[in-house]
Amino acid sequence: MIPQTSPGASYRAHQTEIDDAVARVMQSGIYILGKEVAAFEKEFSAYLGAHYGIGVGSGTDALHIALRACGVGAGDRVATTPLTASATAAAIEMAGAIPVFVDVDPRTGLLDPERLERAIKDDGSQRLKAIVPVHLYGYPADMEAITALANRYGLMVIEDCAQSHGASIDLRKTGTWGHMAAFSFYPTKNLGAIGDGGVVITNDRSLAEKARLLREYGWRERYVSERAGLNSRLDELQAAILRVKLPYLDRENRRRCEVAELYAHALAGSSLETIRPTAKVQHVYHQFVVMCDRRHELLVFLKEEGVGALIHYPVPLHRQPAYLPRRPPKEDSLAHSERFCGRVLSFPMFPELTNEQVGKVIHVVKQWETTVRVPA
Ligand SMILES: *Cc1c(COP(=O)(O)O)cnc(C)c1O
What we know:
The protein is α/β, with parallel strands linked by helices. Helix content is 41%, strand content 14%. It is globular, with a radius of gyration of 21 Å.
């Protein structure tokens, strides 16, 4: 069986270094907010080209804390895409705010700036405060257009970078375009811990300070809460492991791109559509997705032939029970997102995939195309 993703393979690829780092933390006797977290915050923000990093408990918490640091609170409205992990909307709701779902570009699955501007105008005086673009699958959203809109309408921008570690637009990394950004280190992400973790990124000193306070009870001074905060800290073990893996991130992203090239090349001319990045973006292929009208059949066939595949995501957020109250008044206004969710399929994608495994995936897909798939 070729798995769709493999955090275990990532551990094994760096096992000696990770085991040493874990032993170092165990022996240090300091397990929360010590040297490892401080060093990782510096190293990761430097890698991105940003000034500040604040290690937190998860990607969801990073988004929540960034939203609150940006002044988003009860009753505020936040524009985002419905084609994302539930975490994006969960974080907006955790801040007391209301997600306003805006449709995606049908070619990329990313927030559509034209639709976004319409949504901003339609919202009128209804307290739209911020935009959360998601760099879905590792493909950067159109940050030039989105930040231009944010400036014009006085909105905050918090990037959801949970799938885009190392991705860039014109060599400027995702996570450095908005007022703040949130990264997740969930084990399957491009930079993954061995448990939960996340980081808030910003270039703004005062926003950084707010996020730093929020992650630990609102303390500036120990035992004195300046504002109502929470407890969401990246721990020393996870930070030490992330420090081992960070220097390999670019190399591993390049391998993801190689695998994506092999897939895309083999699928050219087939019935499966792929997403092709433009020349100005560096895509980091958190996922390699194809669009297929007979997705369910393909999924079943792949499983039978020993190829793991997943659907990111089967149901857009506005169709999920928790977020039904947030669906837009106009029924068809999120039609592109719905069509995407109905057709998309993610192939195996992780840096440790061998060329032989990639070849097998391609072979099985071609088999489905030529023998199983009866022309519609
Ligand atoms: C993984 C993910 C998150 C949440 O990260 P956690 O660390 O699991 O809380 C948020 N947004 C997107 C787009 C994600 O893929």
